[in-house]
Design brief:
globular, 2 domains, single chain, six-stranded mixed β-sheet, 10 helices, Rossmann fold, alpha/beta, three-stranded antiparallel β-sheet, 37% helix, 22% strand
Length: 306
């Protein structure tokens, strides 16, 4: 079997530093003076004027924009963007299903490249970087710190962790424990990126994601293989591994009902994640192993969310 370290090199991940120049991993939050707005407890560097909007009930009079009001005849208030150092947390799935791909790169390699691009962007903007790597029976936490050293520590830990877990035949686990750990380490106001195929995400886990999204900026980066989306071309039988058995079964891909059912299951799974993100106020990005993960993330960070 090809180890992920053979497809993912130190030089490649360090080179993403140049790709990250000029991009901002953090969404720009805009705040008004309304007492209902939630703000981070972190010590800020100040408030920067962003824009004006029509007055709403509850806005403070001290932020009225009198010049716009005089020009339009309607009350307006100033909106401000909070400038502050934030923590960026990368939650990267290294469980057994992530060491798979029929085309392109392994899922775990896609996650690593996208996460490292986000890491470089975070520190270049003066933010603190931390992370959580996890497999079925092990995990590693990296406390948020400043500077390039934080990214280099992330890369080193990532390469070591994926190499250590590349060939371990461990039964698949759920995401409950990794999400609970993430909730324990994520301080309010953090930007959190989750890189996974989200296998084993149970309905009861949605509450963990909702709680994280309530006080943080959350992005789900859904990684999948093209075979999960569409079966291979008709005209053959393909061996597939079944749980709890060493004997493969034969998959008949000529049956239109089998093909339709397979495609429908993927659509339902992806749309379920997308709907969850809309519900809790998180961002969603889908990426196959045959696509370029950093390019998709760059597009996402520029506001073009799929």
């Amino acid at each position: 079997m090809t180890r992920p370290v053979d497809l993912l090199t130190l030089d490649e991940l360090i080179a993403l530093r140049h790709t990250a120049k000029g991009m901002d991993v953090l969404p720009q939050r805009v705040y008004s003076s309304w007492s209902g707005d939630q703000r981070s407890p972190f010590k800020g560097r100040g408030m920067e004027f962003s824009e004006t909007r029509a007055y709403q009930a509850g806005d403070e009079i001290r932020h009225m924009e009198w010049r716009v009001m005089a020009r339009t005849g309607k009350p307006h208030v100033k909106l401000f963007r909070e400038e502050r150092e934030r923590a960026v947390l990368l939650w990267s799935d290294c469980r057994r299903p992530m060491f798979h791909a029929t085309r392109g790169r392994l899922k775990v390699a896609q996650a690593a490249r996208a996460a490292t691009l986000a890491a470089w962007s975070a520190v270049q903007k003066g933010n603190r970087l931390g992370g959580l790597l996890f497999a079925e029976q092990n995990h590693r936490e990296l406390r948020p710190t400043l500077g390039d050293r934080a990214v280099l520590e992330w890369i080193r830990s990532l390469l070591q962790f994926t190499t250590d877990h590349a060939a371990k035949p461990i039964p698949q686990s759920t995401l409950q424990q990794p999400l609970m750990r993430l909730r324990r380490v994520a301080l309010p106001g953090s930007a959190i990126f989750l890189f996974s195929d989200f296998r084993g995400l149970e309905p009861e886990d949605h509450a963990h994601l909702a709680q994280l999204a309530r006080h943080n900026d959350v992005t789900l980066f859904f990684i999948h293989d093209p075979l999960e989306q569409e079966l291979p071309p008709s005209g053959g039988r393909y061996p597939v591994a079944l749980p709890n058995t060493m004997r493969p079964a034969l998959l008949h891909v000529d049956d239109p009902k089998v093909r339709q059912s397979h495609a429908a299951r993927f659509v339902a799974r992806q749309e379920g994640l997308r709907t969850l993100c809309r519900t809790i106020g998180a961002r969603f990005l889908s990426c196959s192993t045959a696509e370029d993960a950093p390019t998709l993330l760059l597009r996402h960070l520029n506001g073009h969310v799929s």
